[in-house]
Specification:
Layout (H helix, E strand, L loop, with lengths): L3 H7 L3 E8 L2 E7 L10 E8 L6 E9 L3 E3 L11 E9 L2 E2 L3 E2 L5 H4 L6 E6 L4 E6 L2 E5 L5 E3 L7 E8 L7 E7 L3 E4 L7 E10 L4 E2 L6 E4 L1
Antiparallel strand pairs: 1-2, 2-5, 3-4, 3-6, 6-7, 6-8, 9-10, 10-15, 11-12, 13-14, 13-16, 16-17, 16-18
Length: 214
C-alpha cells in the first residue's frame, strides 16, 4: 500500500517543456513514475517571469492530456514565461513541476514557406509564402511571421536524374517570386524551400516538395 507521500512523488509530472512553432506554443509534460495511477488529472498554471501570482489555465484544469495550449497566454512574444503542472490521483496532489523559462520570440521554431510552382519551356517560377502566426490583425487575417522577423527564403532544386538527396541551393533572399532559368526540357525537377532567420541563425524544416516536368 502506497503512503500518500509516496504517491505524491510518484504522480508528480516530469519533463515540463514548452514547444512552439510559429508562436503556436504548447506546454508538454510526461506522467510521473506511478504507472498504476491511470485516473491521474493534471492542472496547469502560467505566469510572466517576474510576476508573483500564477494564473490558472481554465481549459487545462483537471485534464487527462499531457499537453496544454498556451498560445493566447504567451502572446506578448518578447516576454519570458513559466508554466507549471501538478497531478492529482486518488485524492492526493503532487507538488508543482516547473518548466524552464520560455521566451516565444527567441525560442519558437519557424515553419517552412508554402511553395507553388509553375513552369514554361525552360524555366520554373516559384511562389513563396511565409508561414502565419496564430495572432490576428483587427480585420481578422492572421499576421505573417515576416512581421516579427527578418526572414529569408532558401530555395533548393532537386534534379531527379541525379540523386534524390542532392539538393542544390539556387536562391536565398526575400523575394516571394523566384525564377529559375536555363533548365533542361523533358527533365523532372522538384523544388523544396526553407525559411531562414539570420538573426537567430535558425532554419525551418524543408517544405513539401513540388515537382514539375518541363
Amino acid at each position: 500500500v502506497l503512503e500518500d507521500g509516496d504517491l505524491q512523488d510518484l504522480i508528480k509530472p516530469q519533463k515540463v517543456v514548452f514547444r512552439s512553432l510559429n508562436f503556436n506554443s504548447t506546454l508538454h509534460w510526461q506522467p510521473g513514475r506511478a504507472t498504476e495511477a491511470r485516473d491521474t488529472l493534471y492542472f496547469v498554471q502560467y505566469k510572466v517571469y517576474g510576476q508573483s501570482t500564477w494564473q490558472n489555465k481554465d481549459d487545462c484544469w483537471g485534464i487527462q492530456n499531457h499537453v496544454c495550449d498556451l498560445t493566447n497566454e504567451t502572446s506578448d512574444i518578447q516576454e519570458p514565461y513559466y508554466g507549471r503542472v501538478k497531478a492529482a490521483s486518488a485524492g492526493v496532489y503532487s507538488d508543482w513541476s516547473l518548466s524552464c523559462r520560455f521566451t516565444p520570440w527567441q525560442e519558437t521554431m519557424i515553419g517552412p514557406p508554402t511553395v507553388s510552382v509553375v513552369h514554361n519551356h525552360k524555366s520554373i517560377i516559384i511562389k513563396l509564402q511565409a508561414p502565419h502566426s496564430p495572432y490576428k490583425r483587427k480585420r481578422g487575417s492572421k499576421i505573417p511571421m515576416t512581421n516579427y522577423y527578418h526572414l529569408l527564403y532558401q530555395v533548393f532544386i532537386i534534379n531527379n536524374l541525379l540523386d534524390e538527396q542532392h539538393r542544390v541551393l539556387v536562391y536565398e533572399g526575400k523575394d516571394k517570386v523566384v525564377k529559375i532559368e536555363d533548365l533542361r526540357p523533358g527533365v523532372s525537377y522538384c523544388i523544396v524551400a526553407k525559411t531562414y532567420m539570420p538573426m537567430l541563425d535558425r532554419s525551418s524544416a524543408y517544405s513539401s516538395r513540388q515537382c514539375t516536368v518541363l
